[in-house]
Inverse folding.
């Protein structure tokens, strides 16, 4: 029987997942708002994808207040500062068998949402993608990287087969998926990467092409990567490979014109994830006694 997928937050990440699911004929519903929602309803979800081409996709779309169905799998793709707003729709859309997969940039999101909605089974996850809202109802997925990592924490007792079933569907849609055997490690690695990427881009006000060759910008990225790696080590994270080399390998594969969503939001004067990407990392590092010269250098630019 076909699963029902619900995407809460149809921005660059959620819209890309929704678009790839819809292209494969899956039952997917989007939660969005405002003019973005109205455009999806009237013209379809407009996906412009380097991996899949350009499509207008007929997907169901609602506000969080309007949605009254039950979902089998829920992807939470809102920004970190919006988490508290999703409690009601999460609880309404879930059954005891529903699996919720948060895909946010900030470490510790799964447990945080789990505390917010304790009746719901909230796993943890992260994603590597360059995706953004490029117009009302329009999502652009840039480059060749679209990798989703998710998993259950050891105490959650979720059968591996259930996770692999979801992963298989996503793979058929053209998404690279890893079911993690240590989701705490993998979400920390993603947080550390996106923090270094977003903070470097915002501090120097450059796209990722400027990080891809030696010089001052790349040195900032390396410094941030080294400091977050030390935070990880003190938390007990076992890195499968050198974390600085890993971050450089990922950054070098990105489209040179790409920027992190935090950087885009700051440039537009919008609310951003700078608290989670920059200041939460500093707070954690200071608690663990880590030297944070590069993070403090970056923070000086953004402390009001």
């Amino acid at each position: 029987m076909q699963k029902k997928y619900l995407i809460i937050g149809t921005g660059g990440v959620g819209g890309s997942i929704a678009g790839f699911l819809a292209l494969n004929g899956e039952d997917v519903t989007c939660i969005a708002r405002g003019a973005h929602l109205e455009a999806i309803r009237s013209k379809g979800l407009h996906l412009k994808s380097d991996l899949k081409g350009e499509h207008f996709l007929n997907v169901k779309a609602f506000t969080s207040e309007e949605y009254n169905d039950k979902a089998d799998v829920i992807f939470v793709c809102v920004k970190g500062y919006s988490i508290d707003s999703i409690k009601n729709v999460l609880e309404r859309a879930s059954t005891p068998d529903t699996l919720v997969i948060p895909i946010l940039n900030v470490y510790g999101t799964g447990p945080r949402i789990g505390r917010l909605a304790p009746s719901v089974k909230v796993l943890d996850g992260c994603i590597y993608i360059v995706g953004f809202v490029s117009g009302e109802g329009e999502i652009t997925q840039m480059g060749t990287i679209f990798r989703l990592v998710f998993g259950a924490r050891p105490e959650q007792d979720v059968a591996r087969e259930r996770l692999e079933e979801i992963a298989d569907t996503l793979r058929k849609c053209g998404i690279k998926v890893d079911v993690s055997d240590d989701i705490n490690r993998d979400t920390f690695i993603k947080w550390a990467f996106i923090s270094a990427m977003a903070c470097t881009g915002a501090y120097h006000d450059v796209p990722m092409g400027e990080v891809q060759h030696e010089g001052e910008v790349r040195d900032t990225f390396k410094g941030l990567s080294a400091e977050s790696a030390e935070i990880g080590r003190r938390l007990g994270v076992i890195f499968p490979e050198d974390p600085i080399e890993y971050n450089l390998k990922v950054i070098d594969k990105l489209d040179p014109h790409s920027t992190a969503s935090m950087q885009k939001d700051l440039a537009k004067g919008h609310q951003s994830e700078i608290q989670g990407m920059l200041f939460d990392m500093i707070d954690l590092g200071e608690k663990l006694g880590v030297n944070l010269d590069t993070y403090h250098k970056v923070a000086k630019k953004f402390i009001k």
About this structure: Residues 124 and 159 are 15 Å apart (CA to CA). The longest strand covers residues 138-151. The chain has a mean pLDDT of 95. The longest helix spans residues 183-204.
